[in-house]
Structure formats: C-alpha cells, structure tokens
Amino acid sequence: GDWAFAGGMETRRQPVPGSSAVWHARRLLESSRPGVLGKDLQACADFSLYPRWLDAIACPSLVIAGRRDRMTPARKCVELATRLGGESEIFEHSGHMMMLEEPARLRRLLFSRLNRWLAREG
C-alpha cells in the first residue's frame, strides 16, 4: 500500500512536466532504513490530540487533512479543529500529501484563510 498518497496519483498531471512528486517520495521512503516506516506509523498511532499546551493556542487555526490519508484519519482533523475552536478542511481526493496531490487547491485555501484572518486584524 501507499502510506503517503491517495490512489491514482501516478496518473494525475504533475505541475512540473517530467517531475513526479510521487516517484521522488517513494524513492525517499524506499531508501530509509528498515523499521523507519513502522516507527513513523507508530508515532502517528500514539499522537495525542490533547497535549497540555493545546489550550494555550489562541490564534485562528485551520486543520487540513486528506480523506484518503492512512496515517492521520480525517475525523481526527475535525476533532482537533473543534478542540482548537478553529476550522477544518478535508481534501476528498488526497492522502497525507495534499501539498503535492492538490497544490493549487491548497494554495487557494491557505491564501483565502490568511486574507480573511488578516482582514479581521486590520
């Protein structure tokens, strides 16, 4: 299975012709030492949404997740955003790497939220 990307990434058009983020990410993963992926997945499983310092976050927050993420479930994104009093956004067609899977959508989302938050401050 692929732990980073949603299925079908290999056939999606890449923003830079001749460059495949999926290929590079897979080569990087394959070059890691034995046991590294297992430790990464265990860290994801052990991650707590409720560290002591979470309540100290007072700024606007946006928690983003991919619906097809096998390491960080989208429902945890919504739970964390609720706990922060912030917003959540689920990318239905992405896995863990939405910044490579849907870069244009992610840019639009980030600029939109930042502009809105800055307008409230100004």
Sequence-ordered SSE layout with sheet pairings:
Blueprint lengths: L20 H10 L5 H11 L15 E5 L7 H11 L2 E5 L6 H4 L1 H19 L1
Parallel strand pairs: 1-2
Task: Characterize the structure shown.
There is one protein chain. The protein is mainly alpha-helical and 122 residues long. The protein is built from 5 helices and 2 strands, in the order ααβαβαα. The protein has helices spanning 21-30, 36-46, 74-84, 98-101, 103-121; strands at residues 62-66, 87-91. The chain has a two-stranded parallel sheet with strand order 1-2. The longest helix has 19 residues, at 103-121. The model has no long low-confidence stretch (mean pLDDT 83).
Poorly predicted tracts of residues: none
CATH third-tier fold name? Rossmann fold
User: How helix-rich are the residues, as a percent range?
Assistant: 40-55%
- Structural class, judged by helices and strands? mainly alpha
Strand count, sense and barrel status of the largest sheet are: 2 strands, parallel
Question: What CATH architecture do you see?
Answer: 3-Layer(aba) Sandwich
Physical arrangement of strands within the biggest beta sheet: 1-2
> Average pLDDT value?
83
Number of spatially distinct domains? 1
Coarse shape? globular
Give me the CATH superfamily.
Alpha/Beta hydrolase fold, catalytic domain
Radius of gyration: 16 Å
- Give the SSE string: HHEHEHH
The N- to C-terminal Cα distance equals 47 Å
Number of distinct helices:
5
Would you count the extended β strands for me? Answer: 2
Measured by DSSP, the beta-strand proportion falls in 5-15%
What is the CATH level 1 assignment?
Answer: Alpha Beta
